[in-house]
Specification:
single chain, alpha+beta, five-stranded antiparallel beta sheet, elongated, 171 residues
Length: 171
C-alpha cells in the first residue's frame, strides 16, 4: 500500500529540512576549512625549509591496525641538529608492509624560524590535513544537502496521489 499524500508531503518536508541543515553544516565546515587553508598559507610564507632524514620509524598498535610514525632529524639554519618525533602519520597500514617512509629516506622539513622543535615533514596531510578534512567533509555535506533539498522540493506530488486520495477527491 502506498503512503497517503499527506504522509508523503510530511516526509518531503522533513527531507527538505534535513537537506537545508546539511547544507548549512557543510557551508560552516567549508568555512572552517577555508580558515585552515588561509592559516596554512600564512605559515608556509614564513616557514624555513631544510633537508632532513628519517632516522627511525616508531610503531604503535591501535586495536586491529598498526600505525607507524616517522622520526626525523634535520639541521636548522644555525646548523643545530634536531630530532623530531612526529605524531602525524601517512604510514597507516593494516598489513604491516605498506609503510610510506623508511629509515634513511631524505625528506623536506618545514619549521618556524624561531621554533625548530615545531618542525614537521613537508607532506600533503601534515601540511594541509585540517584543510582537507574540514573542506572535504563540508563539500560532501553541501552536495548531499542540495540534492536532498532540491529532490524533495521538486518532487512531482500531483502525479503520486494514492488510490485512497483519488477516491476521496471530488470529480
Amino acid at each position: 500500500m502506498k503512503p497517503s499524500r499527506s504522509k508523503l508531503e510530511q516526509e518531503l518536508r522533513q527531507q527538505i529540512t534535513l537537506g537545508k541543515r546539511l547544507l548549512v553544516l557543510g557551508i560552516l565546515l567549508m568555512l572552517v576549512g577555508t580558515y585552515f587553508c588561509v592559516q596554512t598559507k600564512r605559515q608556509l610564507a614564513s616557514t624555513s625549509r631544510a633537508s632532513g632524514r628519517i632516522v627511525e620509524i616508531e610503531k604503535e598498535q591501535l586495536q586491529k591496525d598498526v600505525v607507524y610514525y616517522p622520526v626525523f632529524s634535520f639541521a636548522d639554519s644555525a646548523g643545530k641538529t634536531h630530532v623530531i618525533h612526529t605524531r602525524t602519520s601517512q604510514t597507516r597500514t593494516w598489513s604491516g608492509s605498506n609503510k610510506h617512509y623508511h629509515v634513511g629516506d631524505a625528506v623536506e622539513v618545514l619549521y618556524p624560524p624561531g621554533d625548530p622543535e615545531s618542525a614537521r615533514l613537508n607532506n600533503l596531510f601534515a601540511v594541509w590535513g585540517w584543510t582537507l578534512v574540514f573542506g572535504g567533509i563540508g563539500l560532501i555535506l553541501v552536495i548531499v544537502g542540495i540534492v536532498m533539498w532540491y529532490g524533495a522540493a521538486t518532487y512531482p506530488m500531483d502525479k503520486l496521489a494514492s488510490p485512497e486520495d483519488q477516491r476521496t477527491e471530488p470529480k
